[in-house]
Design a protein that fits this description.
Blueprint lengths: L3 E6 L5 H10 L3 E6 L4 H6 L4 E4 L25 E4 L1 H9 L3 E17 L14 E12 L4 E7 L4 E6 L4 E4 L11 H12 L12 H12 L4 E4 L4 H14 L3 E7 L7 H11 L5 E4 L1 H8 L5 H23 L3 E3 L4 H4 L28 E3 L7 H11 L3 H4 L19 H20 L8 E15 L2 E14 L7 E2 L4 H14 L3 E6 L13
Parallel strand pairs: 1-2, 1-3, 3-4, 4-9, 10-11, 10-13, 11-12, 13-14, 16-18
Antiparallel strand pairs: 5-6, 5-7, 7-8, 8-9, 15-16, 16-17
The structure holds xanthosine-5'-monophosphate.
Length: about 500
Amino acid sequence: MQSKVLILDFGSQVTKLIARNIRELNVYCEIIPYNSSLEKIKSMNAECLILSGSPASIHDKKPPLFDKRILDDNMPILGICYGAQLISHIFKSNVKRSKIREFGPSKLIKFKNNKILQGIKNRSVSWMSHGDTIITLGSKLQILAKSEFGSIALYKHKNKNIYGTQFHPEVVHTAFGKKFLANFIFLISFCKNNWKPGKLIRRKTLEIKELVGKNRVISAISGGVDSSVSSVLVARAIGTKLNSFIVDTGLMRKNEVKLILPNLKELGVNPKIINASKLFFMRLKGVTNPEKKRKIIGKTFIELFEKEAKRTKADFLVQGTLYPDVIESVSISGPSSVIKSHHNVGGLPKNMRLSLVEPLRDLFKDEVRVLGKSLGIEKDLIGRHPFPGPGLAIRILGEVTQERVKILQEADDIYTRILKEKKLYDQIWQAFCVLIPIKTVGVMGDERTYENTIAVRAVNSTDGMTASWSRIPYDILDLISSEIINSVKGINKVVFDISNKPPSTIEWE
Ligand code: XMP
């Protein structure tokens, strides 16, 4: 039986990090909304439960609450930050709203030995980030550790396997965080480490066969890792009942189709190339508004899917949907506004006739890469940086023309090549160029130039939700700038984007 950990999500930015940490320990883990009922939780057959942090406070007018009956069950429970404060509050502890947030590193001072602290040295550095503070504990709880500043950092129920931690074990700054989570899930909850993404091929292919039956399936391959891995899996499961295609939008990276085709063919996927670049350029003519561009491209994609589905008599469409896209997002502070209309999962029309095959729905990106490797997909394809559905159209500010796409493709190709040569590509989560069609004056030889600017973007991230700009060494930036300006006609300036997300976004449009 596969072990399972459940996380009740109270809306913290880093809930997904808890899940990733646990999956990296080879234990399957799912995130569910904080208000899930005891019945729902019991039906999911998990070994233990983790309550996440939250932007909310237990002193808010309507704090997010969980089904308290869970505490009467025998399931091991770990509350993190808000989760710990909430549990301690229910057990009659005194939780105070502090004026000053305790934020940053703090040494952990052990008070009592417990399995959850096994192998963790006294005064190890933990990471704190909280507004409210647990001042005193109710009589059923006991302190296991304090912060070096004297606040309660870790507690336990005296008779039950219920724990609360004020520090964040899920962030990298808590050096012993993984060990701490491992102690909770293995020593206290007796989970087995039997989640191995590389060994999922058999199970996934069986599931696909069962879902699809005798029907035909289509898949659109974008050149990204998700659509490639899902298509190879479906091809393994149903062979020639899969018709795959690549829409050449004219908005892809340089030589994209040529690069991905041979390996896909080797693995039994033989996509038809649909050359639709004329159609895309025609529809994008004169369009400068980013949202309009996204809508036009999304709509055109759907039209082509449907045409292809009709032609091949398909009833199913493969989608490379990943786990972070399907986690039911909890909204603690009201509905969030649409920042950009991403077109993948959310962009499919509601009345679409095709049913979906989503073999990667329960996986994180890193796990998809592991699975892809076991399927025999080449390292270069698996390691490619994420690429947005609307392609280079949202990396060209202003109107998208063939000429501008060509300029951007050339610059981006040089940039990527240098990052690979300098062994930086695999360390960066996503890197690309953006064309800023504003002309500035330059000088080349003795000649005055009046050309466009290229912005170079590189970010580190775990899932694209937040990102920090990558510190590419100056001498490599210098090389990138010189090569782009010297070789790409139409560019006389290169700038480096040093903005984080939030408040910026990764793409420029
Ligand atoms: P932003 O710009 O929102 O991007 O910070 C976050 C991540 O999502 C990618 N992205 C998209 N992916 N369809 C996609 O499949 C889209 O419409 C889209 N827009 C942005 C972006 O490249 C980054 O990895």
